[in-house]
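Please produce the structure of this protein holding zinc ion.
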Amino acid sequence: MRWLYLIASILLLTACMTPTYPAQSPAGIAVAATKTATILATAAPTASNTPTATATATNTPSPTATNTATPTPTQTPTNTPTSTPTATHTPTNTPTPTITPTATPIPQCTERIPPDELLTIVSREYRLSREYEPADLVPLSDYFDVRVTLGFDTYIRQPVVQPLVEMMAAMTAADLRPTIISGYRSYDQQYIAWSKWTTEVPERASLLSAPPGASEHQLGTTLDFGSPELDNEFHTYFYQTAEGAWLVENAHLYGFTLSYPREATEITQFYYEPWHYRYVGIELATQLHAAGLSLTEWQLANLPVPCEAAN
Ligand SMILES: [Zn+2]
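Below is the modeled complex.
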């Protein structure tokens, strides 16, 4: 009897101990599960090698833990690649603002005082302030014969001087006789020119001349070239003169670009001006020449919105 009682008490004790397992905190289970999963994951290749490991796994309640644990390790590796695409998103976002300026509705700005940069956009929409005047203007009379400057008191920005001297020398060496009709033009000078056009030919003034603030000449990096074939006057046929034809083919090699090509009138909002060249540097000038692109088109696609940049 006493012996039977002993067995009964042992059985009771075991029964009382069993509920201790579910009493474990969920966190504890999770930790345990993760541990098992980690172990299983690492042990997996070894397990497939040894059939004993697989047998043990089926016997122990661990498979149940493995089932619950499986989503956890799967999530962990998934998280890591997810953060990588996020990093890839960032560079994809960067080019997007570059395209945005083209699509942005154009607010007219008329009071810009940009730094003396070579690529500043100047158009009918993006005008310069009356106050804007480049700081490094130099007189062309220091570099050219009066027959080249036609006796005008022409100024140009310092960075343009050397490329211009070289280009004019190359043209002279090719038996050409180019002249420089105009260079830097202040806001007030442009106002006078504009008023003259609007008074004399009001119906065509908007095509022939830029309103004050909208002229690239105010930048001091733009020149109008002439040919003796046209008595050094502005004419659409300038492109057919020996000087005009040479410039079309070679100006980019010296960093000059034709600002208002015939085929870009809609974009530039300026009538074809075969005599009007702007210095932008050899690299960009060559790029534009090769692509058959106007400077304005390139600027609208690649530069920040001018009015915002000015603020
Ligand atoms: Zn011009």
